[in-house]
Structure formats: structure tokens, C-alpha cells
Design brief:
9 helices; alpha+beta; Zincin-like; four-stranded mixed β-sheet
Amino acid sequence: MGAFGIVAIIYALISYYSAGKITLAVARAKAIKKSDHPKLYRIVENLSIAAGMPTPKIYLINDSALNAFATGRSPEHASVAITKGLLDQLDKAELEGVMAHELSHVKNYDIRLQSVTVALIGLIVLVSDIFLRSMFYGRRRRTSNSKGNAAFMLIGIVLAILTPIIAKIMHLAISRQREYLADASGALLTRYPEGLARALEKIKADHEPLEVANKATAHMYIENPLRNEKGGKWLNNLFASHPNTDDRIKRLRKMGV
């Protein structure tokens, strides 16, 4: 159990301090300079000044799919990444809306919250696995097999299996609420909710999956980059990392800023 504890601590530290670098590496994002894309750079700089935070590092993902994400445990360690497809297809107001949304994630410390949550889920999975193994090994060592012990073991097994699932559902629910918050905060930052609403409409209309995305990083993007999810509507909503896009657009258009 001591070895499991050490592994859990190492995993939590890596998740907290290196999640951003790992996500950028997985996305094959390349850092850009102001001379590479001056319009994008000026937009991020101006929004950062308005938000009262340092200008984050800006990365470009060479993919025609429409998406973007932010990463970094604090404004001082932040980065924003955008796909080439999104950069090419958005006008200035829409691009400002997307970048304001991503900067709001940073300012609201959403990335830190998500990193801590993911690390805690990993710890819960480890503890559940330890618990299950100890129960099975303990049962082999016991000489008696009373009904009470059997009932206790059954309850323990059910809880050990369900706990990681419940933790994951809670993590996804938090992710959805932070997306709503970033939408609202971004709209307040630009004073133009319609820009982000139009950007989300374009992102929704794009059915091309983002090749570099996976289930481990999908929750970080402005919209779910995995376009081939299957299942019932209720089940998809329960295990969705993002709220319904139409609902997000409606909320933005109801905002008066």
C-alpha cells in the first residue's frame, strides 16, 4: 500500500504541474510569435490587458477542425491554443469571443480546478483498486465465511466499483458548469456576447473531428472535439464534458452587457 501511495502522490504532482505541457504536446501545438499572426496576437494582448492578467503564450494547432483551448495552473503559467481552421474561419469579433472565453478559464483558475479534480479521480481509482484487492486477499486468509462477512464484502465491492464512476460524473458536471461560467465571463470581457455565440455556431456546424484530441484532453477544448460519440441523449448529457451548444448560444444571446 505504501508503493501505491507514492505512485498516487507522483501522479497528482505531475497532473498539477505538467498537465499544460502534456496537453500542448499531445495536441502538437506550436508556439507562435507576434510576427507570425499579428491579428491574433493583438487580440489576445488587448483582452489580457482588459482582464488584468499577463499575456499568455499563444500556440497554433495545424488542423482544419474548429477548436481552441487554454491551459496553465495560473495566469502566470498560462497558454492558449487555437486550430488553424478556427483562426482562418472566424472574423475579428468571433475570434475575440473565443479568446475571451479561453482567457476567462485562466482567470477563473478553471484549469487548476480541472487538474486537481483529475488528480483526485486518479487517487480515488487507486484507493478503490487497493480496497478491492485487499478484500479479495483478506477473504482468502479468513477461515470463516459468515453471511455477515459476505454481505460486507458485497457492499464493499459495489462501493469500490461505483465510487470512481460517481467521481467521474461529478468531474464532468463541474466541467460543464465552468464552460457556462467562461462563456459569461468572456462575454463580459468583450461586451459583445454575439461574437462568441456566432463562433459557437460555426464550431457546432463543423463536423470534422480534431485528429490530435482524445478523451483525456477533450474536456479542455471550447467544444467537444470528438464528433463520433454514440449513445442515448440522457446518457450523453450525463457523461458530456461540455454543455449543449445550443443552450450556450441561447444563454449568450439573452445576456445584456
